[in-house]
Fold this sequence. Notes:
This protein has an eight-stranded mixed beta sheet, with helices on both faces. A seven-stranded mixed beta sheet has the order 4-3-2-5-6-7-8, covered by helices on one side. The chain has helices at about 5-20, 80-95, 95-100, 130-140, 185-200, 220, 235-245, 260-265, 275-280, 300-310, 320-330; strands at about 30, 40-50, 50-60, 65-70, 105-110, 115-120, 145-150, 150-155, 160-165, 170-175, 205-210, 230, 255, 290-295, 315-320, 335-345, 355-360. It is of the alpha/beta class. The mean pLDDT is about 95. The chain starts with a helix and ends with a strand. It folds into two domains: about 5-35 and about 185-360, Rossmann fold (3-Layer(aba) Sandwich), CATH 3.40.50.150; about 40-160, CATH 2.40.50.1070. The chain is built from eleven helices and 17 strands. About 35% of the residues are buried. It catalyses: uridine(341) in tmRNA + S-adenosyl-L-methionine = 5-methyluridine(341) in tmRNA + S-adenosyl-L-homocysteine + H(+); uridine(54) in tRNA + S-adenosyl-L-methionine = 5-methyluridine(54) in tRNA + S-adenosyl-L-homocysteine + H(+).
Amino acid sequence: MTSPYQRQLQEKIDRISAQFAAYNPPALQVFESPEQHYRMRAEFRIWHIENDLFYAMFERSAEGKQKKVIRVDEFPIADQGINSLMPKLLAAIKAVPVLAERLFEVGFLATLSGEMLVSFIYHRKLDLDWEQAARALGEQLDISIIGRSRGQKLVVGNDFVVEKLNVQGREFVYKQVEGSFTQPNAQVCQHMLDWACSVAGRSDKDLLELYCGNGNFSLPLSLRFSKVLATELAKSSVHAAEWNIEQNQIDNIQVARLSAEEFTQAYHGEREFRRLQEARIDLKTYDFDTVFVDPPRAGIDDDTLKLLQGFERIIYISCNPDTLHDNLTTLSQTHRITQFALFDQFPYTHHIESGVLLEKI
Length: 361
């Protein structure tokens, strides 16, 4: 009998196949998610009632106005480590009043390698008593803790976890900073990285990567090219990417703190950026034949699309098939889809993560 997950996945397959049929793509490759314990992040409100408290989420009414409080004792879509920790953490919080007082929200960030970071958000100022109690809790449960309230951030342990992902026979380590974007479904993320490396093949030329984040794709793709220039605007992501490059002992990646729009201006010689000079990046030393893009949901701006049209190959990972479809209106003028994939990062939701390899006509 077909499971609810398989039925919903088939709906996604049917939708994206129909949506992109006009571009005549090859057969769709489908990368499924585990049906349970796939999500490496989870956030819960802490609901206080009389002398008790519990994890809570909210369900909107049919009219979309009122919210119903749903008690959460277990969360099957979350990583098994999160589920194992949830009751232990709640019991420990209840036993220590300074940890429970005006606690508003708890967030979990886990890794496949077993590390755990827990963030606590409060509606009160945190003091030394809280910090001492949090330190004892961290030692008891072997976790790092971040306490937040208005204008405060107290870190007990680390404000990041280190994930380990296996891609085509090699292990890569990634610093994942609390509050920064990371792929929530680590097992599907490994499929995405494998797919990107497979379609990239091997080149004696260079790769341009736009929107590199913490270097999630940059690290494994660097083994496929002579050099990689990766761009990212967010400082925290740039710092994480640089840490990841160093920890993985990769020496052919440079990271430029530029937006995609800024890189386009620099590449065409329309603007000079001190950030490039300070990082000792000389665009003239690169010989690109491939560009990798993983843009935000809004897709790619018109000027950057025109830039992409000049590359022999485009590897495009998309978290929004609608904007990918729109962007292909431009890119299909110069390129054709030669690889097409669906990655089910977000089971039981309507969200679709997809990938295309575009090669020049």
